Amino acid sequence: MFLCQHCLPRPIPAEEVHHEIPVNTDPSRRLDLTNLNSLCKTCHSRITAMQHPLRKVCL
Ligand SMILES: [Zn+2]
Predict the structure, then answer these.
(1) Could you give the maximum distance between any two Cα atoms of the chain, in Å?
(2) Which residues of 28-45 are buried (b: 16+ CB within 10 A; e: fewer)?
(3) pLDDT at residue number 50
(4) Is residue 27 classed as helix, strand or coil in its secondary structure?
(5) Closest to 44 measured CA to CA, from 12, 29, 11
(6) How many angstroms is it from 41 CA to the middle of ligand 1?
(7) Could you say which of 8, 13, 21, 40 is the most buried, measured as most Cβ atoms within 10 Å of its Cβ?
């Protein structure tokens, strides 16, 4: 099981995967593990809103 990297050290299960570099910026890093972050829904939506203020969907 993956834990949310942003909630650590609280053990919150990660439900989603976040791409540090958005897939539409660099599609070749879509499956690059160093570009992935496991996050819970709450953290993911917060980070996505910060990085993509005009987008509601994280690609
Ligand atoms: Zn979290």
Answers:
(1) 32
(2) ebeeeeebbbbbbeebbe
(3) 84
(4) helix
(5) 12
(6) 7
(7) 40
CB atoms within 10 A of CB 15: 14
DSSP states along 30-49: TT-GGGEEEE-HHHHHHHHH
Residues 5-43 pLDDT 10s: 999 999 999 999 999 888 889 999 999 999 999 999 999
Q: How far is the CA of 3 from the centre of ligand 1 (A)?
A: 8
Highest-scoring range by mean pLDDT, 18-22, 28-32, 45-49, 53-57: 28-32
The model's pTM is 0.73
Query: Hey, how many other C-beta atoms are within 10 angstroms of the C-beta on 53?
Result: 8
Instruction: Pull the structure tokens for residue 36.
Output: 């992935």
